[in-house]
Amino acid sequence: MIYFLIAAAVTAGLAAVHMVYLARNYRVTHETAGLPIKMRTRKVLFISDIHRRSVKSLVRDLEQGHTDMVWIAGDLAEKGVPRQRIETNIRLLKRLAPVIFVWGNNDYEWPSDALEKLLKENGVQILKDDCLIFEEEYGTWCLAGTDDLTSGQPDFPLLNSKLTGYAVLLAHNPETVNSFAPGTFRYALTGHTHGGQIRLGPFGIAERGGWKYRNGTRLLISEGFGTTRLPFRLGTRSECHMIRICTDEQTISKG
């Protein structure tokens, strides 16, 4: 009996170490989002669900490369995260490129006025039911950002009225894409699910991340950079993404 208990304790300990390892390490995936216009290629760091985590090591790894923009798909903060941690993460990410942010549900655990003030003081552009328009030599596209689906007060008709050219959606919750007409967005970049964070084989409280096709839109669900509640992962990966926004040469050649 004593040997069984020792073996069980050792197994539990090793499992906990492995889950911490998965939570604290990260991968940077490389993605391409092509638009059917002649345009200047832009490299975007897309990151979501930072929560309590520091981005110091990530920024150090990416500083030698080129980044045009940083897009944060919500949950930069949560209840109990110190102001200094949030501000430090913002300043670190700004060393890479200008930062654009949309709200996530956990961001509202912070006093929203205080967080908004902090973001603006540090030069972060907040997209709340608004668009950032990019005029290219041979066409237009826009980055559309919306308030969080569950904890915010998104105004989807307002955002829809501002869309110009080919639209890319930046939102926290993947379900946001279903609030618009099919095919409204060429791409949607989201987070929120953490991939389920702790999975037992195919089972988890949320679906795995990756590329999906929903409501006529190519949807990328990130499994997130940080964790919430427990600093553990199992069957999922901490991640962020370098995305090339560029001309879709195949579409152009067919046109």
CATH class: Alpha Beta
The fold-level CATH name is Purple Acid Phosphatase, chain A, domain 2
End-to-end distance: 73 Å
Overall tally of structural domains: 1
Low-confidence stretches: 3-23
Percentage of residues in helical conformation: 25-40%
Overall residue-averaged pLDDT value: 88
Describe this structure in words.
- Strands 1-12-2-3-4-5 form a six-stranded mixed beta sheet. The chain has a six-stranded mixed beta sheet with strand order 6-7-8-9-11-10, with helices on one face.
- The chain has helices spanning 2-24, 56-62, 83-94, 112-121, 156-162, 249-254; strands spanning 27-35, 42-47, 69-73, 99-102, 125-126, 130-136, 139-145, 166-170, 187-190, 210-214, 217-221, 239-247.
- It is 25% helix and 27% strand.
- Strand 4 (99-102), helix 4 and strand 5 (125-126) form a beta-alpha-beta unit.
- It contains six helices and twelve strands.
- It is globular.
- The model is unreliable at 3-23 (pLDDT under 50).
- 40% of the residues are buried.
- The chain has 255 residues and is an alpha/beta fold.
Blueprint (SSEs and pairs):
Blueprint: H1 2-24, E1 27-35, E2 42-47, H2 56-62, E3 69-73, H3 83-94, E4 99-102, H4 112-121, E5 125-126, E6 130-136, E7 139-145, H5 156-162, E8 166-170, E9 187-190, E10 210-214, E11 217-221, E12 239-247, H6 249-254
Parallel strand pairs: 1-12, 2-3, 3-4, 4-5, 7-8, 8-9, 9-11
Antiparallel strand pairs: 2-12, 6-7, 10-11
